[in-house]
Amino acid sequence: MSNNPLIITAAICGAEVTKADNPAVPYSAQELALEAQRCYEHGARVIHLHVRNEDGSATQSKDVFAKAIAAIKEKVPDVIIQVSTGGAVGMTVDERTGPLDLAPEFCTLTTGTCNFGNDVFENSMPMIEAIAKKANTAGTRIEVEVFDAGFVDNALTLVKKGIIPEPLHFDFVLGVPGAMTGTVDRLEFLLSTIPQNATWTVAGVGRFEMPLAKAAIEKGGHVRVGLEDNIYLSKGVLAQGSWELVKNVAEMAAQAGRPLATHQQARQILGI
Ligand code: KMH
Ligand code: ZN
Predict the structure, then answer these.
(1) Is the minimum distance from the CB of 108 to ligand 1 under 6 angstroms?
(2) pTM higher than 0.90 for the full model?
(3) Is 11 in the pocket of ligand 1 (CB under 6 A)?
(4) pLDDT digits (tens, 9 = 90+) for 62-111
(5) The domain 8-270 is classified under which CATH number: 3.90.79.20, 3.30.365.10, 2.40.160.60, 3.20.20.70?
(6) How is the chain classified by DSSP, letter by letter?
């Protein structure tokens, strides 16, 4: 059992889930900030951030991100904010990279194309390279989002080309319908493919969320949970917010003897 500090990321909003799915999904800057504060208080040190228009539709508008980030920073100045560059399926690279104009400290980068439910989440190599270059110019630390096994290989190719810097930090997003499923053997295979100096977190989608969180805690990795990935606390019971899922993970970590990272430790581990 590893005892290195555990970083919990809270994916509080996403682009797909709506208040109709779970009324606790935050849309406005104030709702996002309140949710971020609750998640931080329960142990999350990173907020994976998407933002919404007033009607709840997904946007990657720099201005909407700026308002949300300011509101979050006002309530929780120390939390690490990781902006999404995935946005929603079908958005262009220009749209998706809107928040990078704010030179955030942390962002995502999905390194491959996959099915995403009935849609296709498109990330051709030129698209990935364009997003990575904009992140590098902004001085933003990249988290590599892996929805399927070849995404690791693409990330390693980008390292060789000097487009993304090492050490890599991966997020294994497992259980998206149409991409890699969320069983522990899949996670173990992915771990066998990443460089020794890489760090990693896991985001299990739907029913895979907590079993993968438990595996990551045991294996010395980090954990992402939140309404973006899973709206339920247990079968048929809606989570009251992402904070309740964070609380669950913090309790699992305590039982396993993994301390939670401080915000300084999280920045150090992530190389931010
Ligand atoms: N909304 C998904 C299509 C990311 O944030 O970087 C992509 C996504 C990945 O959520
Ligand atoms: Zn996301």
Answers:
(1) yes
(2) yes
(3) no
(4) 999 999 999 999 999 999 999 999 999 999 999 999 999 999 999 999 99
(5) 3.20.20.70
(6) ---SPBPEEEE---SS--TTT-TT---SHHHHHHHHHHHHHTTEEEEEE-EE-TTS-EE--HHHHHHHHHHHHHH-TT-EEEE-SS-STT--HHHHTGGGGG--SEEEEE-S-EEETTEEE---HHHHHHHHHHHHHHTPEEEEEESSTHHHHHHHHHHHTTSSPSSPEEEEEE--TTS----HHHHHHHHTTS-TT-EEEEEE-GGGHHHHHHHHHHHT-EEEESTTT--EEETTEE-SSHHHHHHHHHHHHHHHTPPBPPHHHHHHHHT-
